[in-house]
Prior knowledge:
This protein has one domain (2-44). The chain has two helices and no strands. The protein has helices at 2-19, 26-44.
Amino acid sequence: MKRLCGFFLFCVAIGMLIGLFIPGAVVQTVVILLLLLIGYNLFVC
């Protein structure tokens, strides 16, 4: 279940990363980095 949640958060972060091509803010970048970090940790561990 942790792997599924991690994969989900990682995919959400990738989608938000694609959304950066639309003008964004610094907050969006911070959220992307947090989701990537949490998703990676949940998926690997």
